[in-house]
Model the fold of this input.
Amino acid sequence: MSLKIYEDLKKTHTEQASAVASQLPTYFTKEAILDIAKATKKDNLFIAEENGIVVGFATTKHTHLSTAEITWIGILPNKQGHGIGSKLIKTIEDKTKKVRQLLVVKTLAPVKPPDPYIKTRAFWEKQGFKLVDIIDPYPGWDADNPCALYVKP
Ligand SMILES: CC(C)(COP(=O)(O)OP(=O)(O)OC[C@H]1O[C@@H](n2cnc3c(N)ncnc32)[C@H](O)[C@@H]1OP(=O)(O)O)[C@@H](O)C(=O)NCCC(=O)NCCS
Done:
């Protein structure tokens, strides 16, 4: 099985990345999937491909001079928990290290059960991200969606 992780500089895989997002309805609303489709086109796009099939993606953007934000990330449901997300983050860290001092990600903070983002927060913490703040309400986010702000040097 061959896994390839790369930055899609020519934007040849935007549709495949959005297709991955649309298979994660527990995590991404219909509105979010539309935003992801836009982000794949205007932000930096990273792709995880297994045997030629796109199984994961991530988008990043430079929000401030010293900061890169991971705007979206998703791995196909049946490919989660096999280290692909970790490898995407490693690639993003390597590719952005010359131009940023901090990596930032915003995710859903703990909410009443069912809380599908428990494993997502465990993922960020495992990658070395530190919880900086919980912002509730977060401007632009739906009500009852507290934002957990994570940062990694
Ligand atoms: C979060 C996500 C990107 C992680 O990618 P992944 O390839 O599944 O993660 P990895 O296999 O690299 O896992 C790394 C660590 O994350 C945590 N993790 C991943 N899957 C987990 C699971 N099912 N249960 C608990 N922890 C889990 C563990 O700490 C794991 O470390 P370990 O393997 O040593 O136990 C992926 O699961 C995903 O697409 N989730 C749905 C969408 C989402 O939450 N996007 C992020 C929005 S901010």
